[in-house]
Amino acid sequence: MAKVVSLSPAFFERLVVELLVKMGYGGSIKDAGKAIGKSGDEGIDGTIKEDKLGLDIIYIQAKKWAPGNVVGRPELHKFVGALAGQGAKKGVFITTSSFTREASDYVPRNETKIVLIDGEQLAQLMIDYSLGVTVQQVYEIKRMDNDYFGD
After folding, report:
1. CA 120, 23, 26 angle in degrees (round to 5)?
2. Higher-confidence position of 12 and 27
C-alpha cells in the first residue's frame, strides 16, 4: 500500500475506478466510470455505472491517506451529504488508510447505502482482480482423472 500512497491523488482515483471495473461494474473503462478528481468536486471523486446498462450510478469517494491517519465519522457524514446533493443513493468510500470504529459502525438513517473499503481490503481486492500486480509463477498440480479411465 505504500506505493499507492506515494502516488498522486488523481492516479489513486483512476486506480479506484479501474478496480471497480475489474470487479464487474460498468463494463469497460470507457463506458463505466470516470474519475472526477478536481477541486470543487463536492465530495465526489468519481462515478461508475452499477451494471453494463447503466441502470444506476455509484458515487465514489477516494481518500489516499497515510496509515495511521484514519477516516472518522465526520468524513462519512460529508460523503453522505455529497450523495444527497447529487440525489444519489449508493456510494463507495475507499481509503488507503483505515476507518475509526465510529465510522465503521455508521449507517445513514435514510435509504443511502455506503460501502467502506480500507487499505487492507483495497490491497486484497487489487490482488484478487490483478490490478497493479503481475503473476510471477503459477504452479499446476494434477491428479489422475478416474472418469477418463472408467468403463
Report:
1. 135
2. 12
How far is the C-alpha of 51 from the C-alpha of 111, rounded, in Å?
20
Q: For residue range 68-98, what is the model confidence (pLDDT) as tens digits?
A: 899 999 999 999 999 998 899 999 999 999 9
Q: How far apart are CA 34 and CA 53, in angstroms?
A: 16
Residue matched to cell numbers 453494463:
52
Other C-beta atoms lying within 10 Å of the C-beta of residue 13: 24
Nearest CA to 133 among 27, 23, 3? 3
Tell me, what amino acid is at 44? I
Is 99 strand, coil or helix?
A: strand
Q: In this structure, is the dihedral angle defined by the CA atoms of residues 83, 88, 89 and 90, taken in order, positive or negative? A: negative
**Closest Cα partner for 61 from 74, 78, 40, 79?**
79
Q: Where are the beta strands (DSSP E) in 97-137?
A: 113-117
CA distances from 38 to 10, 54, 108 (A): 8, 23, 26
Query: Cell numbers of 83, please?
Result: 450523495
Residue-wise pLDDT for 17-65, tens only, equals 889 989 988 866 666 666 555 545 567 888 888 888 888 889 999 999 9
